[in-house]
């Protein structure tokens, strides 16, 4: 089956495509859905998926992915503001902010929302790690400063990252659901 991954972020689509190989054909579609004001990633992603499905021509289901980085010492910042903070403050300066803290624990969380015109379903995944000085050339976004088990996510291949990441975990739950739904 074909799935339209609605995102402006190539990295997300690349990871979903690799993960769902043999399960679904992932096509990246750029559509600027409304990000409703909410602290709930489920609500933001669910609304986005429903809106994108209605606005786009075609029958293939859509997936939306709403993610954030939550730093413990910063009260969960940047959280739902992660995209804005990446664009304004930047990844290097976020590291500088966390460098001063004793507790550098953080987690990534993502919510995938699926819409096929009949139903909207959400699947979430998260992973805990440590904020470190930037290392690595792979991945995207905050990957260079997020360390898991001795490696930053930017030092991992797509497959390695998918095996442990928030997105990989959400995609695993989604793939299980899809297999049961078919
Ligand atoms: P779309 O909304 O078009 O999907 P986006 O990049 O704006 O793309 P988000 O709002 O979900 O997506 O992303 C929040 C921020 O978190 C943004 O700065 C991303 O680069 C970053 N991010 C999301 N997933 C990530 C991951 O797996 N690794 C590193 N950074 C990630
Ligand atoms: Na976004």
UniProtKB/TrEMBL annotation:
Pfam families reported in the protein's UniProt record: Ham1p_like
Catalytic activity from the UniProt record: dITP + H2O = dIMP + diphosphate + H(+); XTP + H2O = XMP + diphosphate + H(+); ITP + H2O = IMP + diphosphate + H(+)
Keyword Magnesium in record: yes
One GO cellular component term: cytoplasm
GO-annotated biological processes: nucleotide metabolic process; purine nucleoside triphosphate catabolic process
Sequence intervals crossing the membrane: none
Active site: 66 (proton acceptor)
Keywords on record: Hydrolase, Magnesium, Metal-binding, Nucleotide metabolism, Nucleotide-binding
Name this polypeptide is given: dITP/XTP pyrophosphatase
């Amino acid at each position: 089956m074909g799935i339209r991954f609605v995102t402006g972020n190539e990295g997300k689509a690349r990871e979903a495509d690799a993960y769902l190989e043999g399960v679904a054909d992932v096509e990246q579609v750029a559509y600027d859905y409304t990000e409703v004001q909410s602290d709930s990633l489920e609500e933001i992603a669910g609304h986005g998926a429903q809106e994108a499905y209605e606005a786009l021509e075609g029958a293939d289901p859509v997936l939306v992915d709403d993610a954030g980085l939550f730093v413990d010492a910063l009260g969960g910042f940047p959280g739902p503001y992660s995209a804005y903070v990446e664009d304004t403050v930047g990844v290097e300066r976020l590291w500088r902010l966390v460098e001063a803290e004793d507790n550098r624990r953080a987690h990534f969380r993502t919510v995938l929302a699926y819409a096929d015109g009949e139903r909207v379903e959400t699947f979430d995944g998260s992973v805990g790690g440590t904020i470190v000085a930037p290392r690595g050339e792979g991945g995207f976004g905050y990957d260079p400063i997020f360390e898991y088990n001795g490696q930053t996510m930017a030092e991992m291949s797509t497959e390695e990252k998918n095996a442990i990441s928030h997105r990989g975990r959400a995609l695993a739950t989604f793939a299980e659901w899809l297999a049961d739904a078919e």
